[in-house]
Design goal:
Helix content is about 60%, strand content about 5%. Strand 2 and strand 3 form a beta hairpin. It is elongated. It has helices at about 45-90, 95-125, and strands spanning about 30, 35, 40-45. The chain has one domain. Helix 1 (about 45-90) packs antiparallel against helix 2. It contains two helices and three strands, in the order βββαα. It is mainly α.
Amino acid sequence: MYAATAEHRLVNEAYTSQMDSVTGLLQGKRVGDRFYRVNGDVLQADHNALYRFIGAGVMFWFLAVIGIPILVVLMLFFSAAEDFWSIITFRIDFSRLVGDLFHVLFIIGIGIVAELFSVFMLIKDIL
């Protein structure tokens, strides 16, 4: 058995979340352990702060899911721009084709792994 060794400290309320967890704006007011939203809803203040952190995590993974494919396409374009020009002008060096193919597959593989991880984390944070 392991004994819990967590340390609890009291924190001044002025340093806790003052933002509305729904709108993300400095609307509403925290009084004690209650957070009063502008629309009249009353939330437990710590829950309001928690929802803000959860929302930030979801947004980060959502942006990662969108941004990773764009980043992979840009990496492929800039890494193979010279080869595309060689193909268009019919001056391709076939000895470089295998190395370039490996390079492209490596970039796509890393992009797929990163995308799958981001989708997993997005789904995990939503659920």
